[in-house]
Design brief:
Blueprint (H helix, E strand, L loop, with lengths): L7 H15 L4 H25 L2 H9 L1 H25 L6 H11 L6 H9 L4 H29 L6 H20 L1 H10 L1 H25 L2 H4 L2 H28 L4 H12 L3 H11 L2 H30 L2
Helix pairs in contact: 1-10, 2-8, 2-9, 2-10, 3-7, 4-5, 4-7, 4-12, 4-13, 5-7, 5-15, 6-7, 6-13, 6-15, 7-8, 7-13, 10-14, 10-15, 12-13, 12-15, 14-15
Amino acid sequence: MNRFLPDPFILALLATVALATLAPADGAAATWVGYVATAAVVLLFFVHGVRLPRESLVAALLHWRLHLMILATTYAFFPLVGMAMSKAMPSLLPAGLWAGVLFLCALPSTVQTSIAYTSMAKGNVAASVASAAASNLLGIALTPLLAGLLLHTQGGDVPLSGIWKVVLQLLLPFVVGHALRPWLGEWAAKQRKLLTYSDRLTVLLSVYSAFSAAVIGGIWSKVLLLTLLILALVCAAVLAAALLFTIYGARAAGLSEADGRTMLYCGSLKSLVSGVPMARVLFPSSQIGAIILPVMIYHQLQLMVCATIARRQGGK
């Protein structure tokens, strides 16, 4: 039954949302929380740059057909599904939550989780490392652009200031970190567990900052329990569509069984660790709470469903 229980990180996220609901940061406290969260985001992407093996990007070029299919799933199929659903059922969710669903569809793949599930399912682990690295590298540029295009179709937009912040707070630290990899790479490899905790702490800080602003703006008077249940069903439908597409797409392309499993996990998973900081950089504080709710719900759904599938495929 453990596979169906909430991930400990999700429990920490829920506790953070509860804290922001009961004791939101306001005034000067909100300003300082914002400064700390921004510094943590900059450090997060600097460390991601340090940790990215250049060999993984080279490997991606050598197995180009698989990686193109995975990237097409992440950055083409997902956005099309999100846009189609929001156009077909615009009244199903408030506009702010549809914006969050579209932002979710523009996010890169996970890194640790997609690799772990590929390994558990006895897929092509080396290819999953290369794909996850390429997806997250491209996501720094593609996610803001795709999010802007998708929200524009709904009458919304990503502020130009948000795009500039991506360059300063995400892309520049990433590039600097990767440039320093020859000197810091070995240290980062030895501190894997510590850096994982720092990743999660950054997300928790960003969630607290975002939901504090959202609570002060009255988010819980606008998002009812029924709305949350409908949002969970929408996220489940997006996940189901991605799983079916990756499974049958891999078969249609004639990929090997191991490569098909790599496409399944690298293509269907979305990154919470990248998504929450990106949302905080891209969107005004009044919108972030609604933007990241779909990301948080999808994250838990993908963990439960994909863990079950990976165990069965791996014979565990």
